[in-house]
Amino acid sequence: MSPLDKAIITKKLSVMVGALKALEPIRTMHLEDYRQAVYKRKAAEKLLQELIEAAIDINTHIITASGHTPPDDYYESFTRIGELGVIGFQFAEKLVPSTGLRNRLVHEYDDIQDSIIYDSISFAENLYPKYVQAAERYIS
Hints:
The protein is mainly alpha-helical. The chain contains 7 helices and no strands.
């Protein structure tokens, strides 16, 4: 069992907060404007990926620091962090679909539909600030 490293979690939380802040102006765009703005589309994709990966890293760190084996996949990182009570199991289940989005972005499965990414920005901005707060409570 490795000890919980608050600095690692704090750094990842900072990445998450920065990504959420950077997504704010994109969220206020209309879908058609978003579709026409190639650089903002690509930025949104990268920011969402970084946001989700930072959460996965936090999940894995907390799970292993608490003496458990690492999760088998990203999906499990959220379910296990919920089972441990860090964010609550029902809340964890709401975040689980973002692992599929992360995989689509990283591996470019199918064509990435602009509307899915656009909708994911609101999803992220509604749920991930609560994740950040829960993780901050956990390490304090």
